Amino acid sequence: xxxxxxxVGPLAKKTAPGTADRRILIVxxxxxxxxxxxxxxxxxxxxxxxxIAHDGHEGIRLAYEHTPDLILMDLALPxxxxxxxxxxxxxxxxxxxxxxxxVSAHAMVGDREKALAAGCDDYFPKPIEVDEFVRFMRxxxxxx
Length: 144
Hints:
Blueprint: E1 24-27, H1 31-44, E2 50-53, H2 56-66, E3 70-73, H3 82-90, E4 100-104, H4 111-118, E5 122-125, H5 130-141
Parallel strand pairs: 1-2, 1-3, 3-4, 4-5
């Protein structure tokens, strides 16, 4: 998978109707989930500027390099977990208003609340069901 800090999504040339073109950072270590998220964002929602981080440290680095409009955050990451990455980003005023959405297999009672307490704005459980995920994402991608 892409380990570079360049945008992905060459198949999508324009945004889908009703959505704004957003810069999105995906912080996710599972290649299958990265591929699923990229496909949804690229093909169904028309998102072009998407960066991939495969661990928490890389997620922080790419957030500072690219100042994304939206961050999709796995919680179980190597090196630095998603809860810590979220808390770290939220400690900087630059990321106070950036939506951070937990997308995680941590789906036990209390995991959603723990993600929100760490600073995530919303929570979507894995495995990803495409139609539900598109509905979940749409409010975060609509034109303002």
